[in-house]
Amino acid sequence: MFRSFAAALAIVGGVLFSFSAQAQDADNTLYIDLKDGRVEIELLPDVAPKHVERIKTLANQGFYDGIVFHRVIDGFMAQTGDPTGTGRGGSDLPDLPAEFSKVPFERGTLGMARSASPDSANSQFFIMFDNGSFLNGKYTVFGQVTSGMEFVDKIKRGEPVRNPDKIIKMRVASHDD
């Protein structure tokens, strides 16, 4: 009887652990809805905690909804996050200090855009179309596309982009309604 109870307890514990892990993952999973489909991103709070928190805060406020991809360079990256659409704007929140890491810029990596000052990231970010090792250690990495990169690949190119594509909706998975 004790073995049956222990086995049942282990199963319940495993289910609870699995549910808890999923809830935790939802807090660090970002959804970006584009015209062609949903992009799912794994956020990296252990790599860039302040940047991840900023992205999550702005996403859950609806800040990114309707914002254009203002700079999209084929073979390089798609940049967004500027409410003015010019590449010079940001949120009303203060700029963030750099959180550079050894995480490489590869296809699907999300990095924070900034000016010449390393401590000037605010709300703008980019998604890499290809590897960009020349950015390693110079820009903050905060996420990685886990699915939907084919939709990122369909973002209209240009610098500036004419009739640019927009983020339809962007939310943390645990706050997606």
Q: Would you kindly provide a written description of the structure presented here, covering whatever features stand out?
A:
The protein has 177 residues and is α+β, with helices and mostly antiparallel strands. It has helices spanning 2-27, 49-60, 149-152, and strands at 29-34, 37-43, 71-73, 77-80, 109-112, 125-128, 141-147, 169-172. The chain is 24% helix and 22% strand. Strands 3-4-6-5-7-2-1-8 form an 8-stranded antiparallel β-sheet. It starts with a helix and ends in a 5-residue tail after the last strand. The model is unreliable at 4-23 (pLDDT under 50).
Question: What spatial order of strands do you see in the largest sheet?
Answer: 3-4-6-5-7-2-1-8
Radius of gyration: 18 Å
Quote the distance from N terminus to C terminus: 45 Å
Number of strands: 8
Q: What portion of the residues fall into strands of 2 or more residues?
A: 15-25%
Oligomeric state of the chains in view: single chain
Helix content: 10-25%
